[in-house]
Amino acid sequence: MSIPENADIESWIAKEQPEPVIEPDLPIIDPHHHLWDLRGNSRMGFRQEVYLCEEISRDIALSGHNIVQTVFAQCGAFYRADGPSEMRAVGETEFVHGIAAMSRSGLYGPTRLCTGIFSAADLRLGAGVQAVLEAHLQASENFRGIRTAFPSDLNAEFLTGFGLLEHFNLSYDNWSPDFTRLPGLARLANQFPGVTVIVNHLGGKIDPQADAGEIAAWKSAIDSVAACSNTVMKLGGAQMRIDAWEPPFHMHQTDSPWSSEAFLETLLPRYQYALEAFGPERCMFESNFPVDKDCISYRTLWNLFKRIAARLGLSEAEKTAVFSGTAARAYRLQAPTVS
Questions:
Q1: What share of the chain is helix, strand, coil (3-state, %, to 5)?
Q2: Which residues contact 313 (CB under 8 A, 6 or more apart)?
Q3: What's the rounded mean pLDDT across residues 104-115?
Q4: What is the pLDDT of residue 40?
Q5: Mean pLDDT of the chain
């Protein structure tokens, strides 16, 4: 079904010459994508306004890559319109659980969508957030954790709430475009070694035109959080706009999508640094779709990731880790069989 609000991005993506799929049989868990309906809520600015079960299933099928499972990432989708404010985010987990059920039917292809779900909960509630976490867990057996910001002072109420993540064996995802917050995230991770802390999108805004000073500061921030053994890095999100800033490969900045080779030459140093800082066993490639779709197709994105793995000479075991194993471990999923 054609959706008028998606027409401009779909037309732009269609301008690319589809690349041959690299290693089409390699099993992949996509550990970070969103689902939403932004019609009437254009403030987020993403060009793919409607992205639900049919849209992501189509992107996966047309990509030619072997996406076996996915993880839904918090984005404020379908919150409840009524009830206590702290409980409204549970509507997101309820919604995504329904998408997982649709996918499990097989009607949308073999990929199992949303076998993992992370949503939101306000940890500043302290002990009061327990009821919210329990409601998420009741809403779906696929619920695995939350994504939220953290206060710079790591106050007692927040830390009490954070401690409940360990109690319920839940993970903590975090992202801010400001990578200078990563040392604070490291302090938080060190206080709770039993919680898997997942750094999103290479730790912050990735500007391909950043100067040497900014890159050095980013590397230092990456090193600080990589030093924590319970942290994991998502390798992705470098292909996206942030607020009003748009990278040179954004659909508003270039007539047609870049190739995976062009992305490789532009972004490899950032991917390489993060991967080497954390090690493949603590890294996972992520699509961040449909956010990154403003800049790259699903097929080209996973070709880029496979080119990165090849350029860096990853072994078969290391490739398994970054394409599925780390995601399966971090989100407690059934790891795919690699033949």
A1: 45, 15, 40
A2: none
A3: 97
A4: 76
A5: 96
Dmax (CA) for the chain in angstroms is: 54
Query: Quick one: tokens of 296?
Result: 């790259």
Q: Give the other-Cβ count within 10 Å of 110's Cβ.
A: 12
pLDDT at residue 1 greater than cutoff 60: no
All residues at 6 or more sequence positions from 6 whose CB lies less than 8 Å from its CB, including other chains? 47, 48, 49, 50, 55
pLDDT band at 237 (very low <50, low <70, confident <90, very high): very high
- Residues 164, 129: contact at Cβ < 8 Å? yes
- N-to-C CA span, the chain: 36
The full set of domain ranges for the chain reads 27-330
61-76 pLDDT, tens digit per residue, is 999 999 999 999 999 9
* Beta strand pairing call for 50-51 and 66-73: unpaired
* 27-330 CATH pick, 3.40.1190.20, 3.20.20.80, 3.20.20.140, 3.40.80.10: 3.20.20.140
Task: Look at residues 199, 207, 195 and name the one whose alpha carbon lies nearest to residue 269.
Answer: 207
One-letter identity of residue 93? T
106 vs 2 pLDDT, higher one: 106
What per-residue confidence (pLDDT) applies to 44?
64
d(C-alpha 182, C-alpha 251), whole Å: 29
- What are the angstrom distances between the C-alpha of 235 and each of 13, 193, 278, 280? 22, 22, 11, 10
| Segment 110-120 mean pLDDT | 98
Residues of 132-169 as b/e, b for ≥16 C-beta within 10 angstroms?
A: bbebbbebbebbbbbbbebeeeeeebbbbbbbbbeeee
